[in-house]
Amino acid sequence: MPDSYDAVVAGHICIDMIPDLSGSAPDQFRAGFAPGRLLQVGPATFSTGGPVSNTGLALYRLGIATRLMGKVGDDLFGHAALQIIAGYGPELAAGMIVDPTAPTSYSVVISPPGLDRMFLHCTGANDAFGENDVDYSSLARARIFHFGYPPLMPRMYAHGGEELTAIFRRARATGVTTSLDMAVPDPASAAGRADWDAILRATLPFVDVFLPSIEEILYMLRRDTYEELCAAARRRGGSGSDVLALITPAMLYDVSGQLLDMGGKIVGLKLGDRGFYLRTGQRVALESMGRASPAQPAVWASRELWSPCFRVDVAGTVGSGDATIAGFLAALLRGLSPDDALTAGVAVGACNVEAADALSGLRSWEETMARVAAGWPRHKLNLDAPGWHFDPPSGLWLRG
Fold first, then answer.
1. Hey, how many other C-beta atoms are within 10 angstroms of the C-beta on 26?
2. Which residues does 382 contact at the CB level (< 8 Å), separation at least 6?
3. 100 touches 74 (CB < 8 A)
4. Which of 38, 92, 329, 393 lies 20 to 30 A from 338 at CA?
5. What is the pTM of this model?
6. Burial of 43 per CB tally in 10 Å (0-12, 13-18, 19+)
7. pLDDT string in tens for the chain (400-residue length)
8. Exposure class string for 123-154: b at 16+ Cβ within 10 A, else e
9. Dmax of the chain from CA atoms?
10. Neighbours of 316 (CB within 10 A)
């Protein structure tokens, strides 16, 4: 194993089974499943899923020296997960933990064309992942530590999230730059009832880069607003989770400001097909971020940007947010500007959705950036909001 790493990625990992639904019509799935109903589908793709795989292996494919930390069972799915990971690089499986007492986590991913993905998920060995499963000696030799999906890992939200906070406190003490991603909790689960406001208030002082989706953070911090947006989306004929069209710049500014006040230094909010929003803290905060702090803190300080998505033929959206995070973190590690980092994030995310699984569509860093440089067109995004203007050279909307 190498003596140092650019990135260590820890947290949730599972096996994804993804039936090919490319020949199915969206209307077949809008009403959900019904007893006795048979839906004919194509072959299934098997891959690893979750941020340890999706973000970690994406970083590796983007040329970033990466170490993975997750937990699987000593079963068929666990052996398959380790084999898949080792297929990308033999050293990548070295940091994985095999727990003979727990089953490997798995997901059945329902990703119909024209609709957002749905999941049938077993948390499995992720239930047992805790504070002491992180190898802090590896973090001391890394530049970025990224942790993903604590709402799918019971020990991360039990007892007020004390183990999640402890992980980030101990990680931050090594001098590594810390990064956190979330997941929408199941409302009927213990995660759905957890006090995420209190958990984030305790944890975010030790988090440098916070990269949730807007749906995740609204659910956690502004449940009434989230439910109102879901109801409004249903009235417009969409699904209850189709809230992205209703998100406004003022809402993003308000929520990101709250997250910066809680302790985050760089806040990125993933917006699905509406792109990626970024807001950064003051220079003094950015300079305290550890070994992967921005190379040009003055350029990064107090910025607000919004990137539209690139145009692609969408084959599936599994892992698109994780890939977006990988592109963004890879750009931060390479010392790029916030404008270029935001573009890199949506570019890697766009490559991701060109394949049904989380990794097959990804390209090398050089190939991805060449697509951008060649004038890869983006979707239109119209922001009729005070202070915002479109910057044609970068393809981004900027505020201020």
1. 11
2. none
3. yes
4. 92
5. 0.92
6. exposed
7. 567 799 999 999 999 898 888 877 767 776 666 787 788 889 998 889 999 999 999 999 999 999 999 999 999 999 999 999 999 998 999 999 999 999 999 989 887 877 777 788 898 999 999 999 999 999 999 999 999 999 999 999 999 999 999 999 999 999 999 999 999 888 999 999 999 999 999 999 999 999 999 999 999 999 999 999 989 988 887 655 578 989 999 999 999 999 999 999 999 999 999 999 999 999 999 999 999 999 999 999 999 999 999 999 998 888 999 999 999 999 999 999 999 999 999 999 999 999 988 899 999 999 999 999 999 999 999 998 999 999 999 999 999 8
8. bbbbbbbbbebbebebbebbbbbbbbbbbbbb
9. 61
10. 25
Structural domain boundaries of the chain? 5-29+42-399
Instruction: Give residue for tokens 């699987």.
Output: 72
The phi and psi torsions of 13 (rounded to 5 degrees) equal: -145, 145
| Residue 63 to residue 368: CA distance in whole angstroms | 12
Hey, what are 78's tokens? 């666990």
Give CA–CA dist 397/278, Å, rounded: 11
Nearest to 17 by CA among 318, 304, 335: 318
Please give the class, per CATH, of domain 5-29+42-399.
alpha beta
Residue with structure tokens 């990466």? 66
**HSE-up (13 A, CA, CB side) for residue 160:** 6
